[in-house]
Design a protein that fits this description.
Number of strands: 13
Structural class: alpha+beta
Strand content: 35-45%
Helix content: 10-25%
Radius of gyration: 21 Å
Number of helices: 2
């Protein structure tokens, strides 16, 4: 009976750590603000990309808390889903992955982005650009407003090409209470398993 109980504890331990630890130890969250007042009176597009070194399919950019003057539905290329209302996700399973939203310029646009990184070592580039209404010219910079270069196990590299338009802050991602509970359960199961081994 003791062996069956120990096996059950080990199974619960593995489950708790597998589910709880990645979320509780998640990477940074970036809060992004774009000031489009210099383009007031015009429309165009907010273009978000997440592109890697070809068919990696391991990482995801999770976008949430959008605010700004958005128009109509988003358009998608590659591994992109979601809306500005519900949040969006960009994978890197194809070479070109974009979430593009029509906007009315003149105010402040903001959103949060966090990354679930896979094990690939080739790197993935998150890009943010503003484009004109005919989709043939960048606004605010000669290319993207800023990029975040991500490689698993290395610090992110943030490159801002339009410092007058972009505010980007890296903040700690706060896990959900349920995620902390799962991690705490796993740690308690470790203690219980150790005590059983010492008694046995």
């Amino acid at each position: 009976m003791n062996n069956l109980y120990a096996l059950f504890l080990r199974a619960m331990l593995a489950f708790s750590i597998a589910v709880g630890a990645p979320a509780a130890l998640a990477g940074p969250l970036y809060r992004v603000s774009l000031d489009t007042s210099s383009f007031a009176g015009s429309t165009g597009f907010l273009d978000l990309g997440f592109n890697g070194g070809g068919d990696m399919g391991q990482s995801i950019a999770r976008l949430s808390n959008f605010s700004g003057s958005f128009m109509g539905d988003a358009t998608y290329a590659g591994d992109a889903t979601g809306t500005v209302a519900t949040g969006a996700a960009l994978g890197n399973s194809t070479g070109e992955n974009f979430f593009t939203q029509a906007v009315t310029f003149g105010g402040l646009f903001s959103f949060d982005v966090a990354f679930d990184m896979g094990n690939e070592q080739l790197g993935t580039l998150f890009t943010v650009a503003l484009l004109n209404d005919t989709f043939d010219a960048y606004l605010g910079a000669g290319a993207e407003l800023f990029t975040i270069d991500l490689i698993t196990g290395m610090a992110d590299t943030v490159t801002v090409n339009a410092a007058d338009l972009v505010q980007i802050a890296q903040i700690a991602e706060v896990p959900e209470p349920g995620e902390w509970l799962l991690l705490a359960t796993g740690l308690l199961l470790i203690v219980a398993t150790r005590r059983m081994q010492q008694r046995g």
